[in-house]
Each structure stands twice: as C-alpha cells, then as structure tokens.
Amino acid sequence: LVPADVEEVEVERQVDGWVVLGSGPDPVWTMKNDTLTLRVKCEAMINNCGARHEVKVPRGVTVVADADNGEVTAVGFDTPLRLSAANGDIVVRDSG
C-alpha cells in the first residue's frame, strides 16, 4: 500500500503458482461501496499459489486493510491506517 498522486485506486499485481487436481491460481477483484477486495482462488489437493499486489491510493485517503493470508505493507502514509492480518506480518514504514 502506498499513497500516490492518482485520482483513483490503482492496482498492479503478479499472480503465479501451480495446482494438482484442482483449479487456480485465479485472481479475482471486486469494488463495492468504496471497498476494494483482492483475492486469489487456489483450490486443489496440492497447490503452491502466490500473489503480490501493489495498491496505490490517492493521498489523504484513510486506508483499512484486512489480510487473510499474507503480509500487509504500508509505506509513506500520513493519514490513519487500520491494518490487520490473520496469518501474516504487518509492516509500516516511513509513515507519520
């Protein structure tokens, strides 16, 4: 997560992996009521799926991020952040 000189949220993502006896990795995103949801479906007996998302948000926007499985990193914010991760680290750098 980074603040940027953008008009609306921008996302760059890299998704890769493999599955045996199943499907994935299938990236899915939705935007509803100012909430962006990013997921990677990886449903298989054996799998190794991963994703990296770089999310740019307009400067001055308050960010709430909840991660189910993975790290949340926020860099350079001077607005309030509410970050949580059920299974992963939370890293905040260069924020005021």
Order of strands across the biggest sheet?
Answer: 1-3-2
Question: Given the C-alpha coordinates, what overall shape results?
Answer: elongated
- Strand fraction band? over 45%
Helix content: under 10%
Number of folding domains? 1
Number of helices: 0
List the helices and strands and how they pair.
Elements: E1 2-4, E2 10-32, E3 35-58, E4 63-67, E5 72-75, E6 81-85, E7 90-93
Parallel strand pairs: 1-3, 4-6, 5-7
Antiparallel strand pairs: 2-3
Question: What does this protein look like?
Answer:
The chain is an all-beta fold. The chain has one domain. The chain has strands at 2-4, 10-32, 35-58, 63-67, 72-75, 81-85, 90-93. The strands form three sheets. Strands 1-3-2 form a three-stranded mixed sheet, with no helix packed on it. A two-stranded parallel sheet has the order 4-6. It starts with a strand and ends with a strand. The mean pLDDT is 92.
Summary of the model, kept short:
The protein has strands spanning 2-4, 10-32, 35-58, 63-67, 72-75, 81-85, 90-93.
Keywords for this structure?
single chain; two-stranded parallel ribbon; mainly beta; 71% strand; elongated
